[in-house]
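Lab notebook, bench 4. We co-purified these components, and the gel suggests they stay together. Before we commit to crystallization screens, I want a quick structural picture of the whole thing.
Request: model the full complex, all chains together.
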Amino acid sequence: MRNFDYMIIEEVAKELYIRALCDLPPDVRVALKSAEEKETSPTGKEILRTMLKNVEIADQKKTLICQDTGLPIYMIKFGTAFHWDGAEIKDRIYEGAKRATVEFPFRGSSTHPVTRINPQTSVGEGLPVTYFDFVKGIDYLDILMIPKGSGSENMSSMKMFIPADGVSALKKFVVDTVLEAGGNPCPPGVIGVGIGGTADLVCRLAKEALARPVGQRNHDPLYAEMEKELEEAINATGMGPMGLGGDISTLAVHIEAAYTHITQNPVAVNTQCWPARRAKAKIYPDGRVEYGH
Amino acid sequence: MANYHLQTPFSEDVIRQLKVGDIVQFNGTLFGLRDLTQIYMFDQRHDPPVSLQDMPCIHTAPSLRKVGNRWEPVCVGTTTSVRMDRFSPQLIEKYGVRVIIGKSGLYKRSLEAMKRYGAVYMSIVGGAAALETQQIEEVEAVYWEHLHPEALYQFRVKEFGPLTVSMDSHGNHKYFDVIAEAKKRLPEIYEKLGIINTA
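Here is the predicted assembly.
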């Protein structure tokens, strides 16, 4: 058991990236189908039908849903009942993301922020984005992979409000940010909202909110209620699919929250596009791998 | 709202018939271009080596594979149009482009050029690259190959779309209308959320 073969992690990291790009999670499919049924705008309905057709073609041809293969994000949870080598895992994930890009092959989008040179690997300094967390009582490693496209990521925003602005300032910020984004993030997608924490934590919370299956409510009824309220508000704008008008402007609003400072009131919005791509794997110490979403 | 099945090249009459909300699919030639292609065309003054007169242009995001001398589509999608707004009036005026295809629309100056010269903007469904790739029958030519993946591409397409006419030659702009309507609804939305300070 001590001799875990870390090449398994590299293979899984590669496989997860490809799976996420080609195979849309079942909850997203259900949400899109239900949106298509509910939509009353003829244009909006036609757009949602085209989205569903695109998912079908990607299934049949085992190809990419969208050409924007995004920047790779890996959210890793360590089961602490087994001694995992975290540094080795980080290296294997880097190599796996790179191999997915080169071996599939698909367009790499990672770029040097100043020289703008693109190594065509999807990785580079600081990439892939990796989040680490630890869970007691389990021995497996849980890896969630999200490829994040730029159409939606570019519409993300955060703001440090003050306590005097109240909770209503946060709600207004969410609605205004989504309205400002219009059709750019390829709506209807999931809107990830972070509330509380610090400037960096609030952005991370908004991203983590996107990792949940579509429509899965926050476990805290207070935030679950806010999610419902914001969903209704965003849909009431009438922006619709691809910003061309209609009833469905978002598939769901997800909130993740943390305690904050007595003088702070931060909020972040991380928009996702309609193909809310993600893939997941559980890796056991004996080398078994279970894939899912 | 009407449905059209068209064939390239497009005459000015056909394009002027189209109205915001119409759904279009077409067969024929489609040119793909994007940011760098148009910086090369307009800022660095290179005339395209092929006529774009009466043709559609798409803001393309192409992943292609070269097999021998031929290019094959791997995954071809569409990118956000607003980045290319600056070039669009010239594309219409100088080179006679009749249709610009992309996502999220263009601004007012482009709308004015469409009105004046008889052109429209059609919205594709963003993110639907698997479908789009299947509708490309052939990559007929890649001009300015050194700019790839931002070269000038000539695709032959079949039943391309569905595309929604979202800016027409009569001065209508669907995205502007949707935003204006949303802004009208905002006071009520804010009130329901308990937002008092709407500044």
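Chain B has one domain: 3-173. Worth comparing against the SEC data before the next meeting. Chain B has a mean pLDDT of 96.
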